[in-house]
TrEMBL record:
Domain note: Consists of three domains, a large central CORE domain and two small peripheral domains, NMPbind and LID, which undergo movements during catalysis. The LID domain closes over the site of phosphoryl transfer upon ATP binding. Assembling and dissambling the active center during each catalytic cycle provides an effective means to prevent ATP hydrolysis. Some bacteria have evolved a zinc-coordinating structure that stabilizes the LID domain.
Entry's EC annotation: 2.7.4.3
Domain of life of the native organism: Bacteria
Protein name: Adenylate kinase
Lineage, broadest ranks: Bacteria, Bacillati, Bacillota, Bacilli, Bacillales
One GO MF term: zinc ion binding
One cellular-component annotation, GO: cytoplasm
PANTHER family: NUCLEOTIDE KINASE
Record region (LID): 126-163
Length: 216
Protein backbone atom coordinates (compact mmCIF):
# COMPACT_ATOMS: atom_id res chain seq x y z
CA UNK A 1 0.00 0.00 0.00
CA UNK A 2 1.54 3.32 -1.16
CA UNK A 3 0.02 6.37 0.52
CA UNK A 4 0.63 10.08 1.07
CA UNK A 5 -0.54 12.00 4.17
CA UNK A 6 -1.20 15.68 3.57
CA UNK A 7 -2.44 18.43 5.84
CA UNK A 8 -1.25 21.68 7.40
CA UNK A 9 1.36 21.80 10.17
CA UNK A 10 -0.26 20.32 13.30
CA UNK A 11 -3.01 18.48 11.41
CA UNK A 12 -1.91 15.19 12.97
CA UNK A 13 0.07 13.61 10.10
CA UNK A 14 2.86 12.30 12.30
CA UNK A 15 0.53 11.15 15.09
CA UNK A 16 -1.65 9.20 12.68
CA UNK A 17 1.31 7.91 10.65
CA UNK A 18 2.88 6.36 13.80
CA UNK A 19 -0.32 4.36 14.38
CA UNK A 20 -1.00 3.44 10.75
CA UNK A 21 2.52 2.13 10.02
CA UNK A 22 2.36 -0.05 13.09
CA UNK A 23 -0.96 -1.55 11.93
CA UNK A 24 0.02 -2.01 8.28
CA UNK A 25 3.76 -2.69 8.76
CA UNK A 26 5.03 -0.25 6.16
CA UNK A 27 7.85 2.31 6.52
CA UNK A 28 6.98 5.85 7.67
CA UNK A 29 8.86 8.32 5.48
CA UNK A 30 8.77 11.82 6.97
CA UNK A 31 10.97 14.43 5.29
CA UNK A 32 10.64 16.60 8.42
CA UNK A 33 12.00 13.74 10.57
CA UNK A 34 14.82 13.17 8.05
CA UNK A 35 15.85 16.84 8.24
CA UNK A 36 15.67 16.89 12.07
CA UNK A 37 17.82 13.75 12.28
CA UNK A 38 20.43 15.22 9.92
CA UNK A 39 20.35 18.50 11.89
CA UNK A 40 20.91 16.71 15.20
CA UNK A 41 23.84 14.82 13.67
CA UNK A 42 25.31 17.98 12.12
CA UNK A 43 25.75 16.35 8.67
CA UNK A 44 26.18 18.63 5.59
CA UNK A 45 22.50 18.02 4.76
CA UNK A 46 21.57 18.94 8.33
CA UNK A 47 23.59 22.16 8.26
CA UNK A 48 21.96 23.19 4.98
CA UNK A 49 18.42 22.23 6.08
CA UNK A 50 18.75 24.03 9.41
CA UNK A 51 18.84 27.43 7.68
CA UNK A 52 15.32 26.80 6.38
CA UNK A 53 13.70 24.57 9.02
CA UNK A 54 14.62 26.92 11.88
CA UNK A 55 12.94 29.81 10.05
CA UNK A 56 9.80 27.79 9.29
CA UNK A 57 10.54 27.89 5.54
CA UNK A 58 10.40 24.97 3.13
CA UNK A 59 13.75 23.40 2.23
CA UNK A 60 14.49 23.77 -1.54
CA UNK A 61 12.90 21.12 -3.75
CA UNK A 62 16.15 19.63 -5.17
CA UNK A 63 17.42 18.77 -1.68
CA UNK A 64 14.12 17.30 -0.53
CA UNK A 65 13.48 15.34 -3.73
CA UNK A 66 16.94 13.73 -3.50
CA UNK A 67 16.22 12.37 -0.02
CA UNK A 68 12.91 10.85 -1.07
CA UNK A 69 14.33 9.33 -4.24
CA UNK A 70 17.01 7.53 -2.27
CA UNK A 71 14.60 6.40 0.44
CA UNK A 72 11.91 5.00 -1.89
CA UNK A 73 14.51 2.83 -3.65
CA UNK A 74 15.26 0.95 -0.39
CA UNK A 75 14.06 -2.66 -0.27
CA UNK A 76 11.69 -2.10 2.70
CA UNK A 77 9.50 0.07 0.44
CA UNK A 78 8.65 -2.97 -1.69
CA UNK A 79 5.65 -3.79 0.52
CA UNK A 80 4.46 -0.18 0.54
CA UNK A 81 5.22 3.12 2.23
CA UNK A 82 3.61 6.10 3.92
CA UNK A 83 4.90 9.53 2.85
CA UNK A 84 4.33 12.16 5.59
CA UNK A 85 4.98 15.79 4.65
CA UNK A 86 6.10 15.08 1.09
CA UNK A 87 5.29 16.29 -1.52
CA UNK A 88 4.71 19.88 -0.39
CA UNK A 89 5.02 21.81 -3.66
CA UNK A 90 3.77 21.15 -7.19
CA UNK A 91 7.40 20.68 -8.29
CA UNK A 92 7.88 17.99 -5.60
CA UNK A 93 4.70 16.23 -6.73
CA UNK A 94 5.98 16.19 -10.31
CA UNK A 95 9.35 14.88 -9.16
CA UNK A 96 7.58 12.17 -7.15
CA UNK A 97 5.62 11.10 -10.24
CA UNK A 98 8.94 10.62 -12.06
CA UNK A 99 10.61 8.81 -9.17
CA UNK A 100 7.69 6.39 -8.87
CA UNK A 101 7.61 5.80 -12.60
CA UNK A 102 11.31 4.90 -12.58
CA UNK A 103 10.69 2.45 -9.71
CA UNK A 104 7.52 1.05 -11.30
CA UNK A 105 5.39 2.09 -8.31
CA UNK A 106 2.11 3.99 -7.97
CA UNK A 107 0.41 6.05 -5.25
CA UNK A 108 -2.91 4.47 -4.28
CA UNK A 109 -4.24 7.11 -1.90
CA UNK A 110 -3.57 10.74 -0.97
CA UNK A 111 -5.13 11.39 2.39
CA UNK A 112 -5.82 14.98 3.38
CA UNK A 113 -6.25 15.60 7.10
CA UNK A 114 -8.54 18.61 7.09
CA UNK A 115 -8.23 20.87 10.16
CA UNK A 116 -9.28 24.50 10.54
CA UNK A 117 -6.40 26.92 11.11
CA UNK A 118 -7.74 27.85 14.57
CA UNK A 119 -6.82 24.37 15.91
CA UNK A 120 -3.23 24.41 14.72
CA UNK A 121 -1.37 26.88 16.96
CA UNK A 122 -2.49 25.27 20.27
CA UNK A 123 -1.67 21.81 18.90
CA UNK A 124 1.83 22.87 17.81
CA UNK A 125 2.87 24.94 20.83
CA UNK A 126 1.74 22.13 23.18
CA UNK A 127 3.48 19.34 21.25
CA UNK A 128 6.24 17.35 22.94
CA UNK A 129 8.41 14.69 21.27
CA UNK A 130 10.52 11.88 22.69
CA UNK A 131 14.27 12.38 22.19
CA UNK A 132 14.85 8.63 22.06
CA UNK A 133 12.00 7.07 20.07
CA UNK A 134 10.33 10.08 18.39
CA UNK A 135 6.84 9.44 19.81
CA UNK A 136 4.60 12.51 19.80
CA UNK A 137 2.59 13.83 22.79
CA UNK A 138 0.61 16.94 23.65
CA UNK A 139 0.58 18.58 27.06
CA UNK A 140 -3.25 18.80 27.01
CA UNK A 141 -4.64 16.61 24.21
CA UNK A 142 -2.36 13.59 24.58
CA UNK A 143 -0.29 13.94 27.75
CA UNK A 144 2.28 11.35 28.85
CA UNK A 145 1.57 9.55 32.16
CA UNK A 146 4.52 11.35 33.74
CA UNK A 147 5.25 14.93 32.69
CA UNK A 148 8.32 15.21 30.43
CA UNK A 149 8.82 11.43 30.16
CA UNK A 150 7.93 9.12 27.22
CA UNK A 151 5.38 6.40 28.10
CA UNK A 152 6.87 3.99 25.57
CA UNK A 153 10.60 4.16 26.33
CA UNK A 154 11.17 6.46 29.33
CA UNK A 155 13.00 8.96 27.08
CA UNK A 156 13.08 12.70 27.71
CA UNK A 157 10.46 14.84 25.92
CA UNK A 158 11.45 18.03 24.08
CA UNK A 159 9.81 20.84 22.13
CA UNK A 160 10.64 21.36 18.43
CA UNK A 161 12.54 24.60 17.70
CA UNK A 162 9.97 25.53 15.03
CA UNK A 163 6.97 25.11 17.35
CA UNK A 164 7.00 28.73 18.55
CA UNK A 165 4.13 31.08 17.74
CA UNK A 166 6.27 33.16 15.34
CA UNK A 167 7.61 30.17 13.35
CA UNK A 168 4.19 28.53 13.23
CA UNK A 169 2.94 31.71 11.50
CA UNK A 170 5.62 31.36 8.81
CA UNK A 171 4.96 27.62 8.42
CA UNK A 172 1.23 28.21 7.96
CA UNK A 173 1.95 30.85 5.30
CA UNK A 174 4.27 28.42 3.49
CA UNK A 175 1.50 25.81 3.64
CA UNK A 176 -1.14 28.19 2.24
CA UNK A 177 1.07 29.52 -0.55
CA UNK A 178 2.96 26.41 -1.66
CA UNK A 179 1.29 23.24 -0.34
CA UNK A 180 -2.47 23.88 -0.39
CA UNK A 181 -2.42 24.19 -4.24
CA UNK A 182 -1.37 20.52 -4.32
CA UNK A 183 -4.84 19.47 -3.19
CA UNK A 184 -6.13 20.53 -6.59
CA UNK A 185 -3.27 18.66 -8.29
CA UNK A 186 -4.30 15.41 -6.56
CA UNK A 187 -8.02 16.09 -6.87
CA UNK A 188 -7.59 15.69 -10.62
CA UNK A 189 -6.04 12.24 -10.21
CA UNK A 190 -9.02 10.99 -8.15
CA UNK A 191 -6.65 9.59 -5.50
CA UNK A 192 -7.52 12.28 -2.95
CA UNK A 193 -9.62 11.45 0.12
CA UNK A 194 -10.34 13.74 3.05
CA UNK A 195 -10.68 12.87 6.73
CA UNK A 196 -11.85 15.34 9.37
CA UNK A 197 -8.74 15.84 11.51
CA UNK A 198 -10.59 17.92 14.09
CA UNK A 199 -12.00 14.80 15.78
CA UNK A 200 -10.14 13.17 18.67
CA UNK A 201 -7.01 11.19 17.83
CA UNK A 202 -8.64 7.71 18.10
CA UNK A 203 -11.61 8.69 15.94
CA UNK A 204 -9.29 9.98 13.20
CA UNK A 205 -7.22 6.77 13.32
CA UNK A 206 -10.34 4.62 13.02
CA UNK A 207 -11.46 6.46 9.88
CA UNK A 208 -8.05 6.35 8.20
CA UNK A 209 -7.57 2.72 9.09
CA UNK A 210 -10.91 1.75 7.58
CA UNK A 211 -10.14 3.72 4.39
CA UNK A 212 -6.80 1.91 4.06
CA UNK A 213 -8.25 -1.53 4.81
CA UNK A 214 -10.54 -0.88 1.86
CA UNK A 215 -7.43 -0.62 -0.35
CA UNK A 216 -5.54 -3.67 0.91
P1 LIG B 1 7.37 18.59 9.29
O1 LIG B 1 8.08 17.91 10.35
O2 LIG B 1 6.75 17.80 8.22
O3 LIG B 1 6.32 19.57 9.95
P2 LIG B 1 4.84 20.04 9.51
O4 LIG B 1 4.35 19.69 8.18
O5 LIG B 1 4.86 21.48 9.83
O6 LIG B 1 3.89 19.20 10.30
P3 LIG B 1 4.01 18.84 11.81
O7 LIG B 1 4.95 17.72 12.01
O8 LIG B 1 4.24 20.11 12.59
O9 LIG B 1 2.49 18.43 12.11
P4 LIG B 1 1.79 17.00 12.06
O10 LIG B 1 0.67 17.11 11.08
O11 LIG B 1 2.75 15.90 11.88
O12 LIG B 1 1.15 16.98 13.50
P5 LIG B 1 1.39 16.00 14.76
O13 LIG B 1 0.82 14.67 14.47
O14 LIG B 1 2.78 16.06 15.24
O15 LIG B 1 8.35 19.65 8.60
C1 LIG B 1 9.18 20.49 9.37
C2 LIG B 1 10.03 21.36 8.48
O16 LIG B 1 10.90 20.54 7.68
C3 LIG B 1 9.27 22.23 7.47
O17 LIG B 1 8.85 23.45 8.03
C4 LIG B 1 10.35 22.42 6.41
O18 LIG B 1 11.30 23.37 6.82
C5 LIG B 1 11.02 21.06 6.36
N1 LIG B 1 10.37 20.13 5.43
C6 LIG B 1 9.75 18.95 5.74
N2 LIG B 1 9.25 18.37 4.64
C7 LIG B 1 9.55 19.21 3.60
C8 LIG B 1 9.27 19.16 2.22
N3 LIG B 1 8.58 18.14 1.65
N4 LIG B 1 9.72 20.18 1.45
C9 LIG B 1 10.41 21.21 1.97
N5 LIG B 1 10.69 21.32 3.29
C10 LIG B 1 10.26 20.33 4.10
O19 LIG B 1 0.40 16.70 15.81
C11 LIG B 1 0.67 17.99 16.34
C12 LIG B 1 0.28 18.03 17.82
O20 LIG B 1 -1.15 17.91 17.92
C13 LIG B 1 0.85 16.89 18.67
O21 LIG B 1 1.17 17.37 19.93
C14 LIG B 1 -0.30 15.87 18.75
O22 LIG B 1 -0.26 15.13 19.97
C15 LIG B 1 -1.54 16.76 18.68
N6 LIG B 1 -2.63 16.14 17.95
C16 LIG B 1 -2.55 15.37 16.82
N7 LIG B 1 -3.79 14.98 16.43
C17 LIG B 1 -4.67 15.52 17.33
C18 LIG B 1 -6.09 15.47 17.44
N8 LIG B 1 -6.84 14.77 16.56
N9 LIG B 1 -6.66 16.12 18.49
C19 LIG B 1 -5.89 16.82 19.39
N10 LIG B 1 -4.55 16.89 19.32
C20 LIG B 1 -3.93 16.25 18.29
MG1 LIG C 1 4.85 15.75 11.64
ZN1 LIG D 1 10.17 7.36 23.62
Amino acid sequence: MNVIFMGPPGAGKGTQAERIVSEFQIPHISTGDAFRLAMSQGTPLGVEAKGYVDKGLLVPDEITNGIVKERLAQPDCEKGFLLDGFPRTIAQAEALDQILQSLDKKIELVLNLAVDRSYLLPRLTGRRICKSCGSTYHVVFNPPKQEGVCDKCGGELYQRSDDTEEKVGTRLDEYTNKTAPLLEYYQKTEMLREVNGEQDIDAVTAQISSLLRGLA
